[in-house]
Amino acid sequence: MALPAAKETNPEKMLTYEDYASMPDDGRRYELYDGEVRVVPAPFPLHQLVSIKLARLFHEFAEASGGLALPTPIDVVFNEFNAVQPDILFFQASRRNLVSLREVIRVPPDIVIEILSPSTARHDRGKKLQAYLRFGVPEYWIVDPQLKKITVLALQQAKYHVHGEFKPGQKATSVLLKGFELDVSEVLAGLDQ
After folding, report:
1. pLDDT at site 153
2. Model-level pTM?
3. How far apart are CA 62 and CA 108, in angstroms?
4. How do 139-144 and 111-115 pair as beta strands?
5. Using CA atoms, how far apart are residues 122 and 132, in angstroms rounded to an integer?
6. Nearest of 131, 173, 133 to residue 152 by alpha carbon
């Protein structure tokens, strides 16, 4: 995947993170892409069940390794005009010091995880993927509860390459997190209701 071309925009009409952060609290989640605000629909219960399981597993690994795992809602501000809310993000122990627990995150996480929903799948595989690529997020996990699949993308030479596509009965692994294995069945089982 090639890096996206620079988008010509009118700086006077672009919203900044400061504008975004001062929006009224109306219960919605928002993201900022090149100065344009996008409303993020509320997730379905299926999404949240998967999110809880994944957050627990990444948190346990973070506790054991000295890293940091955080669930949404949380802003990652890449620059003045771009701020996203990954479903889960992870910083390795070696980069944990870059995150202040009392300030917004302004550095790319080592890993971001997005759980696809019908209303977000296209965006998570499109514009959001391009933002993660553009701002140098080393690893991007795409979790698809409908297809019961976890795809792990690793950044190499300014492109995402598929590290693996993992299904129930397999262990999902990370390029960055040595020793981390995630039982796909444990995360995606029992979701057929």
Report:
1. 98
2. 0.90
3. 17
4. parallel
5. 15
6. 173
Question: What 3-state DSSP class applies to 29?
Answer: strand
Q: Using alpha carbons only, what angle is made at residue 113 by residues 107 and 115, rounded to the nearest 5 degrees?
A: 140
Structure tokens at 193: 């209701």
Residue 104's alpha-carbon distances to 85, 88, 94, 95, in angstroms, are 11, 15, 19, 15
Nearest by Cα to 166 from 190, 191, 141: 141
> How far apart are alpha carbons 146 and 46 in whole angstroms?
9
Hey, where are the domains in the chain?
43-188
- Span between the terminal Cα atoms of the chain, in Å: 36
Q: Which tens digit of pLDDT belongs to each residue from 1-26?
A: 443 443 444 556 799 999 999 988 88
CATH topology of domain 43-188: tt1808, chain A (3.90.1570)
* Distance from C-alpha of 57 to C-alpha of 36, rounded to nearest angstrom: 33
Model confidence over 122-154: pLDDT tens digits?
Answer: 999 999 999 999 999 999 999 999 999 999 999
Q: Pull the structure tokens for residue 39.
A: 């409303």
